[in-house]
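Recap from last week: sequence in, structure out.
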Amino acid sequence: MIRYRRPKQDDAVILDLIEKQLVPLSHLPKKVISQVRKDLPRRMGHGVTLVACTDYESDPLGFVHFMLHGDLLYIDMLAIAPAARRKRWGNLLMDRAERFALSRGCQRAKLSVDSGNTAGLTFYRKLGYTATRYHKQSYIYEMEKHLS
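Predicted structure tokens:
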């Protein structure tokens, strides 16, 4: 099932997923990563976080955090626990985020993927995202998709 994040129950698991699944893929300098870690509670307070779990009371198997800016859905973070991958949790989370955005007038979606995250790049391409820009300084691809 997909449900909204419950901070007291979910945040420890979400922060662990970020630390183990997203941080190792980043090319940001350690000092910047340290600042990002400090900023995570504030960052999670902005936008919407959905979690994937087996039932309403269970811990998250993955999450998507996103924000809406006018007609743009910005996918900030998506992470799935290794044991839960290839079970469609990522697809379900992305579908729910995109449908949420469509219901609020968004027409396009955007996200960033670290260049070393080949599985992520493949995943997003299968969902219809295309790389629109590459940032050499941060080794990040920007990807976009028209929502319909």
